Amino acid sequence: MRTQFVRYLVVGLMNAGLDFLILNSLSITFDVYAGVPIILFTAISSSVVIVHSYFWNKHWTFQTSGNQGVELPKFIAVNAGAFLINVSIVYLLTTFARPSEVGPLAWENIAKALALAVVILWNFTGFRYFVFSRPGGTE
Fold first, then answer.
1. Angle between helices 2-30 and 104-126 (to 10 degrees)
2. Where are the domains of the chain?
3. How far apart are CA 28 and CA 22, in angstroms?
4. Mean pLDDT, the chain, whole residue set
5. CB 45 within 8 A of CB 109
6. What span, in angstroms and rounded, lies between the C-alpha atoms of 26 and 20?
7. d(CA 99, CA 26)
8. pLDDT in tens, 76-117
């Protein structure tokens, strides 16, 4: 399990970098850092990352050759929960809780980092025990 978790963290760092890059690019381009548009921006960045995550986690982290027709719907289900967690935390913190001494882009990144911390644990648990589980529970 330790090897899987380390690989999961590496994939997670790649995903986080991609997520922050897309979210920040959208926010800076449109000069929007809170409110309803942040839901759309987070949805776009998260959707790209979910696709990226599936292929890396399937083939490298958990190294499964399982039936994609079975794994993919499970993967989507776990990520639907992650998506709701991610969007909710970013939206709520950027829209209702920004401290006045923190700039909007910095606060957006702090909110995103907090959301990702929760999502990391949610996804690893869901991927390991639900999506990419193997009979007998071996690595």
1. 150
2. 2-137
3. 10
4. 91
5. no
6. 10
7. 22
8. 999 999 999 999 999 999 999 989 999 999 999 999 999 999
